[in-house]
Amino acid sequence: MVVAERPDPAADGLSEDASWVDRIVAVTGWDPQRTRTVDWTAVEARLGTVLPGDYKRLAELFGFGAFDGFLQLSVPDAPFKSSDIVRQSQWLAEWARAHGNRLWEPYALFPAPGGLLEWAGSEQADRFYWLTEGPDPDKWPIVMSEEIPDSWQRFDGSTAEFIHRMLTLPDHPFSTARYFDVHWFQSYRSLEAAGD
C-alpha cells in the first residue's frame, strides 16, 4: 500500500468567514460542482416541516453516502428506507405510535412538537437527530445517541458545524479525527440507481 501525503485542503484558500458547508467541502476535497437537484418544497411537504438550510445544501452537494465511512447522511429519495429522511421519519413515527417513545426517552419523536427528527446514522448504530424545538430549523440543536441507554449528548450548533467538528476535532464526542488525518466523503450514488 502507498500512502500519499497531501496538504490539508481545509487550510487552503478559505476565508475566515467561510460557511461550515464550504469548510466540509474543503476538508473532504469534495468537488462542489457535483450537485443534485432536490425539490425541497415537495420533500418538506411530505415530511411536514421545513429543514435546516445547511442540511439541504449538504444533501444537494454530497447526496447519499458517508463522511469518513462513518456518518451516513439521510437524504431525500435515497434508495433504502433507512437512508431516506422522509421514509425513515414516517416509519419511526409509525413505530412509535404502535410501541411508544421508550427508545427515545426523555424525548418524543417527530412529528410531536419539539420531537426528534433523525438526519444521520453511523456505521456503529449511533443516531443523530435534530431537536425540533422552535420555529426556526436553522436553530434546532442536535442530539446524538449511541446504542446504549441514557447516552444522549447535545450539540448547540448547525448540522454542518457538527459534521465539520466531527471530522476535524479529536475531542468531539463522535470524532473521526482521532482515527484519520485525511477526510473524505464516500458517495453511494451507484446504489441510488439500484433502488430498494
Class inferred from helices and paired strands: alpha+beta
Q: What quaternary form is this?
A: single chain
- Report, as a whole number of angstroms, the end-to-end distance: 35 Å
User: How would you sum up the major sheet?
Assistant: 7 strands, antiparallel
Helix content: 25-40%
Strand order of the largest sheet: 6-5-4-3-2-1-7
Strand content: 5-15%
Q: Averaging pLDDT over every residue, what do you get?
A: 88
Poorly predicted regions are 1-11, 191-196
Write down the Rg. Answer: 17 Å
Number of helical elements: 6
- The H/E string reads HHHEEHEEEEHEH
Shape: globular
Q: Please give the number of β-strands.
A: 7
Description:
This protein is an alpha+beta fold. It is 28% helix and 14% strand. β3 and β4 (127-131) form a beta hairpin. α1 (20-28) runs parallel beside α5 and α2 packs parallel to α4. The radius of gyration is 17 Å and the shape is globular. Residues 1-11 and 191-196 have low confidence and may be disordered.
